[in-house]
Amino acid sequence: MKINYIYKIKYEPRTDYEFKAHNKLVNTTTYEAIIDKQIPLVIESLNKNKGSRQGVIVVNNGISHNSCLINLQYQVYSSTLYVSANFRSQSQVYGRPSDTILICHVTNQIIDKLKYEIKDVDINVCVANYHHCDPEDFV
């Protein structure tokens, strides 16, 4: 287990969000229902003001949803899209691969709708509790 673990993700454009664990498709409807309706707000904020700090998608508000992903923040500076992802918890075995796909997928949707060119994407992830789960725990 690691506390306050920070790492970078290499951006790879994704047009879908699909992740399999033990050959079973992981259910993403909870994230999709919360995240998808906030994506247009981020796009609108960044298109209105390239320097906006208000391009935030809140997933875990601590009241109605207790997901591992707390929020995603999108900021643009010098043609680079900076993405900050904050997690309360993340599993090295299942969470990290699935979350990487999710973050790249959402980022791709945002880039596609911006009215200016993005030349680079910098994704940083901060995890409060990063842990290893034994695959046998999920069989």
Question: Could you describe the 3D structure shown?
Answer:
The chain is of the alpha/beta class and 139 residues long. The protein is built from three helices and eight strands. It has helices spanning 29-35, 39-48, 95-113; strands at residues 2-9, 20-21, 24-25, 55-58, 69-77, 80-87, 90-91, 120-131. The strands form two sheets. Strands 1, 4, 5, 6, 7 and 8 form a six-stranded mixed β-sheet that branches. Helix 2 packs across helix 3.
**Share in β-strands:** 25-35%
Distance between the termini: 21 Å
Helix share of residues?
25-40%
Uncertain ranges: none
- Largest sheet properties: 6 strands, mixed
Give the SSE order as H and E letters. Answer: EEEHHEEEEHE
Mean pLDDT: 87
Class per helix and strand makeup = alpha/beta
Shape: globular
Please report the number of helical segments: 3
Number of strands: 8
Gyration radius over CA: 15 Å
